[in-house]
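Propose amino acids for all 67 sites.
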C-alpha cells in the first residue's frame, strides 16, 4: 500500500514511470507497506521468464535484498 499523497507518474520516456509525492511527506513517514495484493517472485521464477518479462520486472519492480 502506497502513501495516500503519492501517485504513479511518467517521469520521461527514458526513465519511464515513478512514484512521486503529491504533497510534502514528512521525513520519517512510512510511504509503503507490503500488503496481500503485492506479488513476489523468486530469483528462479524471474530467471525462467522470457527476456521481455525479465525486462519489465527489472524496470518496474522493487528488488529486496536477501532475507
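Proposal:
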Amino acid at each position: 500500500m502506497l502513501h495516500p499523497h503519492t501517485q504513479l507518474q511518467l517521469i520521461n520516456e527514458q526513465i519511464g514511470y515513478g512514484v512521486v509525492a503529491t504533497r510534502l511527506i514528512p521525513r520519517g513517514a512510512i510511504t509503503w507497506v507490503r500488503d496481500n495484493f503485492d506479488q513476489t517472485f523468486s530469483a528462479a521464477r524471474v530467471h525462467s521468464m522470457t527476456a521481455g518479462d525479465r525486462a519489465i520486472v527489472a524496470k518496474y519492480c522493487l528488488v529486496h535484498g536477501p532475507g
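The two ends are 21 Å apart (CA to CA). Strands lie at 6-12, 16-21.
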